[in-house]
């Protein structure tokens, strides 16, 4: 018996994995915003907009949001070779795969156990992305591939006119995610299938199948006679769905219909009140249900009449459908490729908390003004009328802190001068896996990993006497990690672990790296061309 081998996607530079620095986030109060007044008691204010490299931002979120995000929606660069203004869309194939892999690994950590990831993509990289996601999340985490009709016209320039994008869906629950996802509202078209032509007191109904196309069973192969006298038996290759005794009980209970003249094949009456409260989502999303690219462009143009450079925004109806299926009010939605900010705008209107990350300057020039209109109730487009949106709530704007370490003029790594004491303590808490929670009454309790294990950071050189005093205050029931530039004398205390900074943290991650959007070091070296006539038979 041959041993099965695991198939993996391979590409140039796959083995290069960045050692990310867990940056802290710095709020810019001048750019944070909330509505002028409360609109409802459910207004949400703890939303987050981050400007910066999205890989570093995802790493920055890891400590506080691991396992807490209910829905992740990302619309990454499709790597089509187009000259996108806001994204390097057209990366070399291997770079694109590395870029996506590194971000998916962090997204997996942030997802709640009952959460889901939705990724829009097209044919150019879609099939590679599916294999990559299988590798990162496991094939058992795959839920479905939605085909979204993003374009309903025809392109005369194409061999076959493209009319769709894909949406890959993954969840830690895999197929069991069906028990936590929401159904779609039953629209008028779906409800219109249920009528009541015989004035049944149980209400509207529709006909359901009574034969099952499965292996035949003796107890399910009987014949019945319709009220008109016609004899009916299961068609070839099928059988009745119930025993004969149960069939006649249903006839007596008027749960079986033979048609207005009593001559039709019998059918089961399925009542509207018996079916699920909504519709199970399907994998085909026509533009009439989920919007299309031109609709999205009109929404953006309505918000920014002076013009915008977004070529492929997503319509609010698409995000509304995703968020409705994947979340409930109050749940957390994340978009680390925020683009024009549609995900946050829609999530906010639907009463969901949100986090968005965007590297480009349009985080300020487009996303913030758009959110202002949403919060002020001035955005009447998109899904506003459908969800009866009138404004309210707020968000906080953050930048990524600079790298904790920087080179001095002698090329030595030193603590960044921009870091004051509180920033330094918070940054080192993240590096060491502690939760930053300074105790205003106990100076050395700046962070904790357990109820009895603490962290203390100081920029002073500590003496033996100071360490002895710390040890006495910590006591025998607690432990303390002390991080300082230097100390004199012995540091041998049973309840203290004393480490020197920055030496202690030098090898924990990559320092001074601010942009992971394009890792050109992964590119293979170009082959050296040899003029014809100088080529060896053995070269």
UniProtKB/TrEMBL annotation:
GO biological process: methylation
Pfam families associated with the record: N6_N4_Mtase
Record's keyword annotation contains DNA-binding: no
Keyword Membrane: no
Catalytic activity: a 2'-deoxyadenosine in DNA + S-adenosyl-L-methionine = an N(6)-methyl-2'-deoxyadenosine in DNA + S-adenosyl-L-homocysteine + H(+)
Protein name per its UniProtKB record: site-specific DNA-methyltransferase (adenine-specific)
EC number assigned by the record: 2.1.1.72
Enzyme class: transferase
């Amino acid at each position: 018996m041959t041993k099965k081998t695991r198939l993996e996607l391979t590409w140039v530079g796959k083995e290069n994995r960045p050692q990310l620095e867990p940056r802290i986030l710095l709020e810019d109060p001048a750019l944070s915003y909330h509505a002028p007044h409360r609109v409802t008691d459910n207004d949400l204010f703890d939303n987050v907009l981050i400007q910066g490299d999205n890989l570093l931002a995802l790493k920055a979120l890891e400590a506080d949001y691991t396992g807490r995000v209910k829905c992740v929606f990302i619309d990454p660069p499709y790597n089509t070779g187009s000259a996108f203004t806001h994204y390097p869309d057209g990366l070399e194939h291997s770079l694109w795969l590395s870029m996506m892999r590194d971000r998916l690994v962090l997204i997996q950590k942030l997802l709640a156990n009952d959460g889901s990831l939705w990724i829009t993509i097209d044919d150019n990289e879609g099939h590679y992305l599916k294999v990559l996601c299988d590798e990162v999340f496991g094939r058992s985490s795959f839920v479905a591939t939605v085909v979204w009709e993003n374009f309903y016209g025809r392109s005369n320039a194409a061999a076959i006119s493209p009319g769709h994008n894909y949406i890959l869906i993954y969840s830690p629950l895999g197929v069991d995610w069906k028990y936590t996802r929401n159904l779609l509202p039953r629209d008028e078209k779906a409800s219109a299938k249920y009528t009541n032509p015989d004035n049944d007191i149980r209400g509207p109904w529709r006909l359901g199948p009574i034969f099952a196309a499965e292996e035949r069973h003796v107890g399910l192969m009987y014949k019945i006679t319709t009220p008109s006298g016609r004899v009916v038996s299961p068609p070839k290759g099928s059988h009745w769905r119930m025993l004969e005794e149960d069939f006649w009980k249903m006839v007596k209970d008027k749960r079986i219909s033979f048609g207005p003249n009593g001559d039709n094949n019998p059918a089961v009456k399925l009542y509207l009140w018996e079916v699920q409260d909504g519709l199970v989502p399907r994998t085909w999303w026509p533009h009439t249900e989920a919007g299309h690219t031109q609709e999205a462009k009109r929404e953006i143009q309505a918000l920014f009449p002076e013009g915008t450079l977004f070529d492929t925004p997503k319509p609010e109806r698409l995000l509304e459908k995703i968020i409705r299926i994947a979340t409930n009010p109050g749940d957390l939605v994340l978009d680390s490729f925020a683009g024009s900010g549609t995900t946050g705008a829609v999530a906010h209107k639907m009463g969901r908390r949100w986090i968005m990350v965007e590297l480009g300057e349009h985080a300020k020039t487009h996303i913030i003004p758009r959110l202002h209109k949403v919060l002020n109730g001035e955005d009447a487009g998109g899904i506003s009328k459908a969800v009866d949106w009138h404004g309210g709530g707020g968000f906080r704007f953050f930048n990524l802190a600079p790298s904790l370490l920087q080179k001095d003029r002698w090329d030595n790594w030193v603590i960044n001068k921009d870091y004051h004491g509180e920033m330094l303590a918070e940054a080192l808490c993240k590096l060491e896996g502690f939760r930053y929670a300074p105790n205003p009454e106990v100076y050395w309790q700046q962070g904790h990993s357990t109820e009895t294990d603490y962290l203390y950071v100081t920029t002073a050189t500590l003496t033996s006497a100071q360490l002895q005093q710390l040890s006495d205050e910590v006591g025998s029931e607690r432990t303390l990690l002390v991080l300082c530039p230097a100390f004199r004398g012995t540091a041998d205390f049973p309840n203290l672990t004393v480490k020197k900074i920055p030496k202690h943290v030098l090898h924990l991650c990559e320092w001074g790296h601010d942009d992971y959007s394009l890792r050109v070091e992964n590119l293979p070296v170009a082959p050296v061309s040899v003029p014809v006539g100088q080529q060896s038979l053995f070269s």
